[in-house]
Write a structure and sequence with these properties.
- The protein has 391 residues and is α/β, with parallel strands linked by helices.
- The chain is built from 15 helices and 14 strands.
- The strands form three sheets. It has a nine-stranded mixed beta sheet, with helices on both faces. Strands 12-13-14 form a three-stranded antiparallel beta sheet, with no helix packed on it. A two-stranded parallel ribbon has the order 2-3.
- Helix 3 links the parallel strand 4 and strand 5.
- The longest helix is centred in the N-terminal third of the chain and has 21 residues.
- It is globular, with a radius of gyration of 22 Å.
């Protein structure tokens, strides 16, 4: 009897594997566009609105997710990521109802990563408990800096104390699944300041850290302040040292640099972000969200962008079921180029084996060889081909 059960179990697993090959799995990104204030460096799709219609937003997020998942023929969601904006400003019941609706439409394993970006303002532990109760099992805390002057320059609305308090609370509720975001290279920051700050964060943090070099984006307040000479950019050579010294410090504390900006210990990788970097398809829901998936009635994967402005986005969903503003078919070569571009960000790179499973129609050789520039990179040891590159 027991042996028969084992055989049946193996048969079911085999059938499930075949079924999944014929149908779709996808990661799901959800964009909450609202913030209390606009940071000086940020050019993301975000809006400051004191009268958010939470009920309408909830209904539209659910409707768009259901519509796009149906378009993609998705039977399993591998991970969910709530970004923004400031998704921790959403009501916990919005998150709960959204996840319930997704679970009714597709399978989500109880081990799947459900992440949320958290802004460490006066967020009380009760808020974190409610988000956990709603289904969130991983949080990414936007600390950015512990320096008071740095917080002011970046336009952040929290203090270093609030950041560390939020981090301590999060570690209790989400042990092993707390990430910290930091920005380095802001005007006035020195190498010594940065290393002292990083050392302090490491002493508090969990098993994941993301380090982002400040990027000056046109149209932002910080860009204008530097253009006018009100603030002075950090010398690029100093910023380079900041990154290299940070990599060294984190490695000494047991953190593995598994991606250009991301570090983890105990294999606590961001599974959702790995979906992007390994070419997995993903669905973008919410104002301005991006997606990459193959509709069931189309021949190839599409790049999709949702309508940016929240009110227009909601109107389109209420009339059409989704608010895709632009969709572009991606050729196999374009998909391969994207896979190579994002895959080179991770420590494992992209092997021919990964390429052949996803895009058996084209090889890296067709795209890269012959090329004198590629040959130069190989000779410099900056690009390494595995033995199967021409396959």
């Amino acid at each position: 009897m027991r042996r028969g059960c084992l055989v049946l179990q193996k048969n079911i697993q085999s059938l499930w594997a075949v079924w999944k090959q014929c149908h779709s799995t996808a990661a799901l990104y959800v964009h909450w566009p609202y913030c209390k204030r606009r940071c000086t460096y940020c050019n993301f799709n975000k809006y400051v609105d004191k009268s958010v219609d939470h009920q309408r937003m909830k209904a539209c997020l659910i409707k768009e997710a259901e519509t796009l998942m149906g378009m993609a023929g998705v039977i399993e969601i591998t991970s969910v990521f709530f970004g923004g904006g400031t998704p921790s400003l959403a009501k916990p019941e919005t998150i709960e109802y959204f996840l319930d609706a997704v679970c009714h439409r597709a399978f989500i394993s109880d081990k799947s990563e459900i992440s949320m970006e958290i802004n460490p303002t006066s967020l009380e532990i009760e808020n974190l408990r409610l988000f956990k109760g709603a289904g969130v099992n991983r949080v990414s805390i936007g600390v950015q800096t512990l320096n008071k002057t740095g917080l002011q320059i970046l336009g952040r609305d929290h203090t270093a104390y609030e950041s560390l308090r939020c981090l301590e609370m999060a570690k209790v509720l989400f042990p092993g699944r707390v990430s910290v975001d930091l920005i380095f290279g802001w005007p006035g920051q020195t190498l010594d300041m940065w290393l002292a700050e990083l050392d302090q964060v490491i002493s508090y943090c969990d098993n994941h850290v993301s380090l982002y070099q400040l990027t000056l984006e046109r149209g932002t307040q910080l860009f204008k302040q530097i253009q006018s000479g009100h603030l002075i950019s950090v010398d690029p050579s100093v910023v380079e040292d900041m990154y290299l010294q940070a990599v060294k410090m984190l490695a000494g504390r047991g953190f593995e640099r598994y991606e250009v900006s991301n570090f983890a210990r105990h294999n606590s990788y961001s599974q959702h972000n790995l979906s992007y970097w390994t070419g997995h398809q993903y669905i973008g829901v919410g104002p301005g969200a991006h997606g990459r998936f193959k509709p069931v009635n189309k021949e190839c994967r599409e790049a999709r962008i949702q309508t940016l402005e929240p009110n227009n986005w909601m109107l389109e969903i209420e009339h059409c079921g989704h608010a895709t503003r632009k969709s572009s078919a991606l050729s196999i070569l374009q998909q391969l180029e994207e896979l190579l571009a994002v895959g080179l960000r991770i420590k494992w790179g992209i092997t021919s084996d990964v390429r052949s499973r996803k895009y058996p129609e084209r090889s890296f050789a067709e795209m890269l060889l012959p090329s004198s520039r590629v040959e130069d990179l190989v000779h410099q040891g900056l690009l390494i081909f595995n033995d199967d590159i021409t396959g």
